[in-house]
Design goal:
The complex is a heterodimer of chains A (235) and B (275). With 235 residues, chain A is an alpha/beta fold. Chain A has helices spanning 42-49, 88-93, 108-120, 136-150, 166-181, 193-199, 216-224, and strands spanning 2-13, 16-27, 31-35, 57-62, 71-74, 154-158, 185-189, 202-206, 210-215. Chain A is 31% helix and 26% strand. Chain B has 13 helices and no strands. Chain B is globular and about 60 Å long. Classes of the chains: A alpha/beta (235), B mainly alpha (275). The interface between A and B is medium-sized, with 35 and 29 residues.
């Protein structure tokens, strides 16, 4: 049974159609990498998967009992104010907000989950450090930690490696790979084809429409003969 | 010194101004933390000018000033919040147009209609004498609502302020919180402008948050510090205003400037010590 299915999806941004004809489905535990140029509709698709945007046409279906609020999300780094006064503990705990329900405050279970997730990602010692004093890599680790607090099923990542150096990027990918091995389904938007393709099981290539969806090995093979950079992608 | 304070507190008009002002300062500080962090600092300023315009028109038309100003400012607040979400007119340009436009309409209304003798100075720069019984009750009700909401919804307020998209994806109705914040800000501005003046009321929203962010780095600390700074500066300002016979609004803002500078220096010293 598939965890998430997009059927003939069309999306617009500020009244302009940016993406159409998207069809894919993903089963639990798979790792999808969404690639494409700037403006190809990647981030818009991300917003739709998060239910922040409703489709113009088509639909997004969640299966296997996955609830729309059970998604962990790592936004583009630029989405958050650099000088926001918040410490790591406050930010990670806010990942548990979908467990609040009708309660007003975080319970012991949420605090425990936040602490355990911080320990797992090796940032427990940073818990009282302010957001603005963290390095770019540490900030992404904190946001990943918050996302992992929010979900046990589906992780959505929007350009997690943007602006990071190669070493830190590799560390971050390793953490994501680890989460995927533990059973989490991963959907990642990325510019970094090589790094991303190493771990992905599936690839979705967008250019305003769907250029390719399928297994990652098959994509790599076709890419090697120049299918997606050259003519046949547009054919 | 104590004698002066006792004398100051013996006047009913000072008692009213103290109670209402202190409560308004707390409300403004808490709302201000949200506004500043959401890059909406200028919204308070825009709303105060619109409130001035509405009050002036109400006076000329012989209507109840608050009866007209509150709904007008509420509608403006909602519109401004909508505009922030990327429409044709950029948010900051919209605020600038609205605030100067409303100010001009207010001044025109007062000047054109003969027989209206209004203390323009009092409206623009505030007066302790303007706080009447109804204003005190409005301040008490408003602050009760703001303080209770802020404490009860603190985790959600943090979530929406830090990352609205993440909050929405987690099932929190972020728009509702933003609109509620806008509505409470609107009422704070209208009630507070009698005391602080239309020109100065927005400082009550912005200064405590910006000052606290100089020194404190966690959301909780900034929130608590903003409330404390706001209360302290209000008490200092109104005392100065009584002792030196200066306008209350300007005295309070001056107290905020001093505390802001103090926090800036303290932050620099703390940073140097850490190195």
């Amino acid at each position: 049974m598939s965890l998430i299915t997009c059927e003939n999806l069309a999306l617009s941004y500020e009244g302009r159609c940016v993406l159409q004809g998207v069809n894919f489905s993903l089963a639990g535990g798979e790792y999808l990498c969404i690639v494409g140029e700037n403006g190809s509709g990647k981030s818009t698709l991300m917003k739709a998967l998060l239910s922040l945007k409703s489709p113009d046409r088509g639909e997004i279906r969640f299966g296997d009992g996955l609830r729309r609020t059970e998604i962990g999300y790592l936004p583009q780094n630029s989405a958050i104010r650099r000088d926001f006064p918040a410490n790591v503990g406050e930010i990670v705990l806010s990942g548990c907000q979908n467990t609040l329900g009708s309660r007003l405050f975080y319970g012991a279970a949420a605090r425990r989950r936040a602490r355990q997730t911080m320990e797992k990602l090796g940032i427990a010692h940073l818990s009282r450090r302010p957001w603005r004093e963290l390095s770019g890599g540490q900030q992404q680790r904190v946001l990943l930690c918050r996302a992992l607090c929010a979900t046990r099923r589906l992780l959505l990542l929007d350009e997690p490696a943007a602006g990071l150096d190669p070493v830190v990027t590799a560390e971050l990918y390793a953490l994501i790979r680890e989460a995927n091995r533990e059973g989490l389904t991963v959907i990642m938007v990325s510019h970094d084809m090589q790094g991303a393709l190493r771990d992905a099981t599936h690839v979705l290539h967008l250019a305003g429409h769907q250029v390719y969806f399928g297994p990652a090995e098959e994509y790599a093979r076709q890419d090697a003969v120049g299918c997606f950079c050259g003519g046949c992608a547009n054919a | 010194m104590l004698e002066t304070l006792r004398e100051m507190l013996s006047y009913p008009f000072m008692q009213r101004a103290m109670i209402a002002g202190l409560l308004l300062s707390l409300c403004a500080a808490l709302l201000g933390v949200i506004l500043v962090l959401k890059n909406l600092s200028m919204v308070g300023d825009g709303l105060s000018h619109v409130a001035f315009g509405a009050m002036a028109v109400a006076l000329v038309c012989n209507m109840a000033p608050l009866g007209l100003a509150v709904p007008v400012v509420l509608v403006t607040a909602f519109l401004l919040m909508r505009l922030q979400n990327g429409a044709r007119l950029r948010g900051d340009a919209a605020v600038a147009i609205l605030s100067t436009g409303a100010l001009a309409v207010g001044v025109m209304a007062i000047s054109v209609v003969p027989g209206v003798n209004v203390d323009l100075n009092g409206y623009l720069f505030g007066s302790v004498l303007a706080m009447r019984g109804a204003d005190v009750w409005a301040a008490i009700a408003l602050s009760a609502v703001v303080l209770v909401l802020f404490v009860l919804f603190y985790p959600r307020i943090f979530a929406v302020t830090f990352d609205a998209d993440f909050a929405r994806a987690s099932g929190i109705r972020a728009e509702t919180y933003t609109m509620l914040c806008a509505a409470l800000t609107a009422v704070t501005v209208v009630v507070g402008m009698r005391l602080m003046g239309a020109m100065l009321i927005s400082s009550l929203l912005i200064f405590p948050a910006v000052t606290s962010m100089r020194l404190f780095r966690s959301f909780r600390a900034v929130t608590i510090s903003a409330a404390a700074v706001s209360a302290l500066c209000f008490l200092a300002g109104i005392t100065i205003s009584y002792v030196c016979a200066t306008p209350a609004g300007a005295s309070i803002v001056c107290a905020h400037i001093v505390v802001f500078l103090f926090f800036t220096v303290a932050a620099a010293v703390a940073a140097r010590r850490r190195k």
